[in-house]
Specification:
Length: 306
């Protein structure tokens, strides 16, 4: 049957829909298509090759064929909990390339190179050069203070009572509405950022500001966009206090990702940040495994896996 189907033509990351959420349905590949089948048997087609990240909420089941298809077209599957904020697992759409992983690791392990990368992240995030002669730890402290102040200012702008970032993923309903909205919003941002990091061939765990977590580099890159995209959205939704704030946040995040052309920016920004280390990228070894879906016409971003 597979020989009768046309070849897959997934879109470059920058041209894809950012993120969709699926709940309460069986996900399968039927007649060559990625579909969700609900309890009544109704099929909903998902254009998997045009989506960067699919969040799977409670109540979903995924067939082996569907997971394999998502991997082949470079779409990240992420298993999340209630409201889409508890990350349980993720299926890599290809994963890190050895040459880029070694490049990233060298930058992260050398304190001088790491500081250059962190300073570049700071400059991109705040629109100004960081203070001179500061260590990574000192810049992290300065950044934390600015972040807390920015939360306060945005909360004031939307008239939201804000007592600080405080929530427990295991006691979701105990958190206040602003914190729940922020958690839902950042989960969306982390999902699409992880998809871009993997598509570019880098390792999510090898971070520069954040360290010691499975998604440290994802947090580093996502923070470049957080206050320009999802944080204002979260506070606006919190101020409106809809019946289902998490759902409203997810829809609003999807819209702001499209309006800000976020997926067009992430991979070039990753390359720009790492280039601040001012060391050459290693060449891929002759026997390196090529992308799962080669793109001889070079229509995609640098590192695009299709």
């Amino acid at each position: 049957m597979s020989g009768l189907l046309p070849p897959l033509k997934p879109l470059p990351i920058k041209e894809r829909l950012s993120v969709i959420f699926i709940e309460r349905g069986e996900i399968d590949m039927l007649d060559g298509a990625f579909v969700v089948v609900d309890v009544t048997g109704v099929r909903t087609h998902i254009p998997v090759g045009g989506v960067a990240c699919i969040m799977l909420e409670p109540g979903t089941r995924v067939s082996h064929r569907a997971a394999a298809l998502a991997a082949r077209v470079g779409t990240l599957l992420v298993w999340v909990g209630e409201a889409g904020v508890r990350l349980y697992s993720a299926g890599q759409p290809g994963g890190a390339r050895s040459d880029r992983l070694l490049y990233q690791a060298r930058l992260a392990l050398d304190e001088g190179l790491r500081l250059k990368v962190v300073r570049k992240m700071y400059a991109l995030r705040f629109g100004e050069e960081p203070p001179a002669r500061r260590s990574v730890e000192q810049l992290r402290g300065i950044e934390g203070a600015r972040v807390r102040r920015t939360y306060q200012l945005i909360a004031q702008k939307f008239g939201v009572k804000w007592s600080g970032r405080d929530y427990d993923a295991q006691e979701w309903d105990a958190a206040d509405i602003p914190n729940r909205c922020l958690s839902a919003a950042t989960a969306c941002l982390y999902g699409v950022t992880e998809a871009a990091v993997l598509a570019a061939g880098y390792a999510p765990a090898v971070g520069f500001i954040h360290t010691g977590k499975p998604l440290s580099f994802v947090y580093d890159i996502a923070d470049l966009y957080k206050f320009d995209t999802v944080v204002p959205v979260a506070f606006k939704i919190a101020a409106d206090a809809p019946h289902n704030p998490e759902r409203a946040v997810r829809h609003a995040c999807r819209d702001i990702f499209r309006q800000s052309k976020l997926l067009e920016r992430i991979i070039p920004d990753i390359e720009d940040v790492l280039a601040a280390g001012e060391i050459p990228k290693p060449e891929a070894p002759p026997d390196a495994v090529a992308p799962a879906l080669p793109n001889p016409d070079s229509l995609g971003d640098a590192g695009h896996r299709s």
